[in-house]
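Lecture 7 notes: from sequence to structure.
We start with the chain below.
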Amino acid sequence: MCKQGEGRRLICVTQRSACPDDFLTRVGLIIAQRPARIILREKGLSPEEYEALAQKLLPLCEKYGVPLMCNGPVPSFTLPGCGAQLSFQNRGLPVSGEFGVSVHAPEEAAALQESNVAYLIAGHVFPTDCKKGVPPRGLEFLQKVCQNARQPVYAIGGITPERVPSVLQAGAAGYCVMSALMKAPDPVRLIQEFYSQEETIHEL
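Predicted structure tokens for the same chain:
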């Protein structure tokens, strides 16, 4: 059974292309709400552009005690001060700090039980525009991943505030949000809605 994480359960995954306003300002507001992590997912950048963007975010993340996880060009996996988010296929790449691995099957979670990966991201759980035409794996899939994992598991894919209680009841330590936080007119208010739903799990 996966371990429960400590503190906030929200991981923000960035997507500059979906951001209607200044990206750095928006992510700065999100970081100030102290989510569990920020995953910098900007695969369209060159390694140099990606590193420059990470270096702009790192001081803010350090100020608020929020780990910055890199998920971009391969050199980003060794950026000083940053962790890394790896695919299951790339789980053996050398990294400079803490790292997480994305999984898409319970068997993958089981295969990582003896590794030093810090957490897993499992998805996609619900329908999402990021995976149009691809059927979601559902809460039963999430529950099986959690049962096969030693590390904390974070759900991804179509997570809304209303779905948070069911995700946590399935055994997840938390959840990831990308498009919604990048597009929301008021990302701070949306984060507070997510945090409010985290509290309901204790009331059920």
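Points to note: The two ends are 20 Å apart (CA to CA). The first strand starts at residue 10 and ends at 13.
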